[in-house]
Every structure is written in structure tokens, then in C-alpha cells.
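Justification of resources, computational component.

The compute hours requested in this renewal are based largely on the per-chain cost of generating structure records like the one below. Each record pairs the submitted sequence with a full C-alpha cell output. That output is archived, and it is also reused by downstream analysis tasks.
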Amino acid sequence: MPMRLDGSCKCGAVRFSVESHAPYPYQLCYCSICRKTAGGGGFAINLHADARTLNTEGAKAIGVFRAELAGEDGQLHRSTGERNFCTRCGSALWLFDPTWQELLHPFASAIDSDLPVPPVRTHLMLGSKASWVEPVIGPADLAFDEYPEQSIEEWHRSHGLWID
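The structure output for this chain reads:
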């Protein structure tokens, strides 16, 4: 049975719940988008959840930010990823991309439920980290300049942590 994740913004205007088969906060992202929108420590942690199970309270206080990214043609293109946040206090809540309708990625920082401690961590997008950030990479941790090929689901399954 999946784990229910309860979350909220800092001011309490938005509350949400979602079901997750992969609740371990193991993936630290250092990209400029995550870092600037949700990463006070120089990184953000996204979880994996079933978008169909999302329940929200305070929807009127939810805003959406879509980053502009440089395309292969050198032009700026708006990302399909929708970063949801509280318009009152600015708390990052979750990332949703309509390309993958079934997935929702809540920010671990918005989750109020006790999350399980991951056995190892994956540091990704280190090629984009801020100069002041000195990642603490454990001996068994993985580190990538870009995105790893292994998905969040695959990581959980490979570590025997996927919750059916």
C-alpha cells in the first residue's frame, strides 16, 4: 500500500495530500531552477507520487511557474514543467509536467509527514551547482553532472524500497 504524504506551505494557505510508492528523499538536485525556486541549501529534493491521488485545500493560493530554458536552437522555450507554489508565502509545493500525467513530484521540504531516511543519496545536476555550494557526498552516494539515467521509481525498486 502506498504511503500517504501530507504537505503544506509555510503560511497554511495550501494543504495537500498525495500517495507515493517512492517516498524516500534521496535525490538532491542542484540545477539552477530547483536551487532558485526551492533550494535554500543549494539543492532541492523532489519526491515521486501518483498525480491522480492529489487532493488540495486552498487552490486559490496556488501559483504556477514555468521556467524558460535554452533550446537546441539557441532560443528560450518555456518548460513544460509546472512548479506549483503558494502565492502568499512563496513555499515550493510540487512539480507537475503534463508530459507525464501520472506523475507528481512534491518537494520534500513541503511534506509534513515523517519521511523515511534513504540509505544513500544521489546528487544530480552538479554541473549547475552554485559556486558557494560544497556538496556533502557520502561514500556510497552517487554524483552526476547532469541527470542520471535511473528514474526515481527504478532507484526505489533497485534498493527494495518501492511500496506496493
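The CA atoms of residues 14 and 59 lie 7 Å apart. The helical segments are 32-38, 152-158.
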